[in-house]
Amino acid sequence: MNISKIKDAYYFTQRRLSRWLLTVTLYINSPLISAVLWLFYIRRIKDINVLPDAGASVLVINNAHGFSDLIEAYQDTCSPYTYYTIDEECLRAAANYFLGYEIGDYAYGMNVNDNKKRLLRTYVAKTFSYMQRVYKFRGIIAFNFVYHALRELIVASVGLGVPYVIVYKESLRTYGYLEATKKIFKERLGKFAGEMFLVNNDETKNLLIGSSVAVNDQIEVVGHSRADYLFRALGKKSAKKSSGRRKKIIYYAISEFAGLPIFGDEFCPVEVDGIILPANYSFADLANKTLSEIIKFAQKNPDVDCLIKGKSGGYYSNSNDKLERTVLPENLLFIHGRPDLSVLIDADVVIGLNTTALLEALVLEIPFIVPVYDMDDYVLKNYTLHFLGLEILAKTTSELYSLIEKNVKLKEYPTVNKEIKKQVLDRYIGNSDGMASQRLSCSLDKIFKEK
By residue range, what is the domain housing residue 219? Predict the structure, then answer.
């Protein structure tokens, strides 16, 4: 019996029930009843350390367990505020009711009637004001500003004098994706109405400024706080591997559009180096070939634990149906959902493409392999992350197999050039010192104290 699938079924059933109950309150046009229901769904984030006399509160709009960064931010310090979280579904139900179900995040500014926006904003503002009487929130935190379901809450929060802060997790982009994002943000999103962006790297800061989403004073670069846990683990880790433990590889399942210019359901490449990426381009074939090779490796190496980490909902490739009919070895484990960095610490080798997990492996100085078979130089240059030679490129499936085998057998972790490592980490996650969580907590405390 697949426990992960049972948990997923329970989670999505709960969300559907929540959506139905919330829609009923909207039909009867009662912000007060909506507020009562929203209050029912609010939960305290117990893993965030708070001061004993913490009085005021902060509301976190939860999407895909994004608050793991906040938990890390207060790992070694206590917040003067109590943090609560509410499922984004509460706001999505309101947006769907007033705007319809077919609104895309990137079409919101162009295709939505202004009167409908005002109705949604008014309803959300009234609902939130009722909640404010109970919790007296000093601020609101979300992890992405693009979601159309949250746009009117941003505007409403300004009217209520409550700062809205984006701890922006979507900060990892290939060069071609970054160039396309600049164009889409500038044309479709408009200026951010909230208080502040806290971002991972300078590339994202420049993106937000260059696309006129925010100005310099609205953006602070704090870095990828979750990586601090890995820096602490690295300090305790021996370069020599323990002889008694089982070997372990982790494959972070390749998403067919990872690093490509996908915005909602639209493929929107721009010209880079005089070439535009074909509209039907994807990494689907690469993903399927890599998955097959990982399964083959697991079958032939029963003494090696092979973990495959997929997206929430259990996405591992575009051939999940075929996968479910495959007889899999006992040493092959599929995991998905929220990040669990503890599984990464003692890995012998990591495999993936255009994922933060490769940078997290670099923090730990674990060898990581990037499959690039069937890629031409143009795609390699513009649509993959650049690790300045610290990565191991697999140019064929057979080479991938042999590279995994070679690195699993190593008795010590290879030495990494510290200066190049710093350059790569600073560029992509803005954290080469293990201090991002301190920067994040200090920034948040300052923003909410000033209000």
Answer: 3-225+435-450
